[in-house]
């Protein structure tokens, strides 16, 4: 699907919330060729450097609503907890034909569309933080008012963050959030825990930190570049009776290894996503 659609928009792209994820989207869109004059950012705590960057590019930050023409898209990148207030505020901006894209964890399509004019086209998504370097993955689900053109537009905007997976069943969103939305935190925790474990067996802490960081980063890059499945890559490291096998006997313990522990963690995240939806 082509990003050219971003260069031919008739209305603005309004980004509501330019924090970690919203900021990453902005950079990605400008990189994909979205004309900056099509960009409107609504952000009460706009960082000085971002304000300067937007100003230099020709984008508008926090204009009066009366000065915003009918948006092609409104992207909601605020915390789920402020959704009720934010939706009430931006409701008047939603014109016929405006597509609303949400990246809020947990907030359901029903919740969002109830706060918007009847018939609003809504795409609910969940990205992840590797989006900041264009290597994220976003899961997206449309409501029944989203037509092919709206889906193409959402796809082009989300492609700035990395790859996009469309699903038809919104019930899968909380589980997807628990796997790919929150998942980078699990991987970073792995790097932290590996560094601490290295220090515990006698490595200087700074060296252990560098070894752990490079190991997690290199393994991720190998997985992407080789295209080989994770189980085969793991087996490639594991000599029979060797050091890795000794570690994996602990990590793959069916009762207290990674599998059951991560299972519990992902179930907890899925449940929290459900709670955030209400
Ligand atoms: N950080 C992550 O890994 C992921 C976050 N998300 C979702 O992305 C959304 C944003 O998360 P982050 O970027 O991490 O949070 P953040 O706190 O960095 O950004 C939220 C931004 O919203 C702004 N904001 C607050 N009230 C506002 C209002 N009334 N109007 C406009 N802007 C307002 C805040 O000033 C802040 O800059 C959340 O809903 C979260 O569930 C989804 C996937 C991954
Ligand atoms: O922790 C959260 O709620 C958000 C959603 C996925 C990643 N961060």
Describe the structure.
The protein is elongated. The protein is α/β, with parallel strands linked by helices and 278 residues long. The mean pLDDT is 95. Helix 6 crosses helix 11 (258-276) and helix 7 (183-200) packs across helix 8 (205-226). It has two domains: 2-174, Rossmann fold (3-Layer(aba) Sandwich), CATH 3.40.50.720; 181-276, ProC C-terminal domain-like fold. The longest helix has 22 residues, at 205-226. The protein has helices spanning 20-32, 48-57, 83-90, 109-114, 148-159, 173-181, 183-200, 205-226, 230-237, 243-251, 258-276; strands at 13-16, 39-42, 60-61, 73-76, 99-102, 121-126, 136-142, 162-166. The protein is built from eleven helices and eight strands. The protein has an eight-stranded mixed beta sheet with strand order 3-2-1-4-5-6-7-8. It is 48% helix and 13% strand. (2S)-3,4-dihydro-2H-pyrrole-2-carboxylic acid is lined by residues 105, 177, 181-182. GO terms for molecular function: pyrroline-5-carboxylate reductase activity. NADP(+) binds at residues 77-80. One of its GO terms (cellular component) is cytoplasm. Pfam families: F420_oxidored, P5CR_dimer. Belongs to the pyrroline-5-carboxylate reductase family.
């Amino acid at each position: 699907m082509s990003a050219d659609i971003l260069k031919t928009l008739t209305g603005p792209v309004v980004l509501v919330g330019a924090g970690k994820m919203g900021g990453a989207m902005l950079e990605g869109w400008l990189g994909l060729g979205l004309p900056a004059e099509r960009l409107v950012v609504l952000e009460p705590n706009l960082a000085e450097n971002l304000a300067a960057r937007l100003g230099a590019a020709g984008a508008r930050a926090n204009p009066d609503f009366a000065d915003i023409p009918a948006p092609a898209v409104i992207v909601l990148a605020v915390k789920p907890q402020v959704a009720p207030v934010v939706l009430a505020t931006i409701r008047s901006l939603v014109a016929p034909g405006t597509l609303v894209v949400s990246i809020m964890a947990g907030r359901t399509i029903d919740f969002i569309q109830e706060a918007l004019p009847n018939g609003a086209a809504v795409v609910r998504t969940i990205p992840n933080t590797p989006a900041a370097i264009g290597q994220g993955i976003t899961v997206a689900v449309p409501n029944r008012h989203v037509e092919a053109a709206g889906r193409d537009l959402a796809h082009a905007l989300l492609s700035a963050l990395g790859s996009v997976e469309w699903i038809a069943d919104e019930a899968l969103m909380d589980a997807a959030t628990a796997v790919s939305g929150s998942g980078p935190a699990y991987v970073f925790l792995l790097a932290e825990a590996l560094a601490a474990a290295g220090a515990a067996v006698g490595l200087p802490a700074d060296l252990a930190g560098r070894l752990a960081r490079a190991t997690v980063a290199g393994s991720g890059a190998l997985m992407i570049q080789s295209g080989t499945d994770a189980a085969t890559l793991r087996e490639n490291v594991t000599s029979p009776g060797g050091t890795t096998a000794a570690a994996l006997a602990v990590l793959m313990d069916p009762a207290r290894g990674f599998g059951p522990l991560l299972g519990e963690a992902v179930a907890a995240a899925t449940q929290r996503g459900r709670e955030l939806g209400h």
